[in-house]
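Final report, Chapter 2: Outcomes

The project's central promise was a pipeline that accepts a single protein chain and returns its three-dimensional structure in a standardized token representation, suitable for archiving and comparison. That pipeline is now operational. To close this chapter, we reproduce one record exactly as it appears in the project archive, with the input sequence first and the structure output second.
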Amino acid sequence: MGRPSSAQRILGLKLRLCISRQNRILTAVNGKLIKDEFTDLPVSRQRKYQLRMRRDKRCPICGEPVAVSSFCVKHWVERREIARKKLGLKRRYYRAFSYQLEAMAKAKASARKKRNQKKSR
């Protein structure tokens, strides 16, 4: 086919602007509209994405499965450390559930690594 002309590019841009003005989300895979309970909400597309992730029990940042609350273990630990820094806390409460989950995740990752090393031999 060749490169689109400037008129075709402008028309494509106007079409995308019309779609975004209508506050609808096009999927990247097949170009169809996502129709669910969040489609007609008067909120941004990012917020709709977050709500869909929460509904599907996935981390809104990376898409990994949720550990306990709203985030995966990695981002839950990041939130904990940000809160500690913001509040100026120096001590750690190692019996907190996030520390236990972090230790379990590290143990599971190291076991997976050892298992993969045995398979490669």
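Archive annotation: Residues 17-29 have pLDDT under 50 and may be disordered.
This record, like all others produced under the grant, will remain available to the consortium after the project formally closes.
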